[in-house]
């Protein structure tokens, strides 16, 4: 009986933590700004994008996440871009997993 209560309590706590984490993610966000740097990765790259409001986002861009090679673009430093995807925040960084490259100028 004691173990059943512990397991139930653990399940409730885990459900709460998962729901809080899910609520923090914005799955259909759009950001726009200037590409400041690019770091190559295993199957894509991460672009550091600074918005007009001086917010910095680390945008993870890969062929798989944007829906295939026909939608994939290699950004360059200095490009002004708009991207859409799942946005989240760590303690001190903003991130977005790009699902669509909306525009590049």
How would you describe this protein?
Residues 1-24 form the signal peptide. This is DUF5666 domain-containing protein. Keywords: Signal. The protein has one helix at residues 2-24, and strands at 26-40, 44-50, 56-62, 80-89, 94-104. The protein has 105 residues and is an alpha+beta fold. The chain has one domain (26-104): Nucleic acid-binding proteins (OB fold (Dihydrolipoamide Acetyltransferase, E2P)), CATH 2.40.50.140. It has a five-stranded mixed barrel. A hairpin with a 4-residue loop joins strand 4 (80-89) and strand 5 (94-104).
Based on the structure given, which CATH architecture is correct? Beta Barrel
**What is the element string, with H for helices and E for strands?**
HEEEEE
Structural class: alpha+beta
- The CATH class assignment is Mainly Beta
Rg is: 18 Å
Give the mean pLDDT.
88
Question: Which features characterize this protein?
Answer:
1 helix; alpha+beta; OB fold (Dihydrolipoamide Acetyltransferase, E2P); 22% helix; five-stranded mixed beta barrel; elongated; 105 residues
Task: Give the SSE layout.
Blueprint: H1 2-24, E1 26-40, E2 44-50, E3 56-62, E4 80-89, E5 94-104
Parallel strand pairs: 3-5
Antiparallel strand pairs: 1-2, 1-4, 2-3, 4-5
Task: Compose a concise summary of this entry.
With 105 residues, this protein is an alpha+beta fold. It has one helix and five strands, in the order H-E-E-E-E-E.
């Amino acid at each position: 009986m004691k173990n059943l209560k512990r397991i139930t309590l653990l399940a409730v706590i885990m459900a709460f933590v998962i729901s809080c984490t899910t609520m923090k993610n914005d799955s259909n966000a759009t950001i726009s700004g200037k590409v400041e740097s690019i770091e190559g990765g295993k199957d894509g790259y991460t672009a550091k994008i600074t918005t007009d409001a001086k917010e910095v986002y680390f945008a993870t861009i890969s062929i798989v996440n944007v829906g295939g090679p026909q939608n994939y673009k290699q950004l360059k430093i200095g490009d002004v871009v708009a991207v859409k995807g799942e946005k989240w925040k760590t303690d001190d960084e903003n991130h977005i997993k790009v699902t669509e490259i909306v525009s590049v100028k």
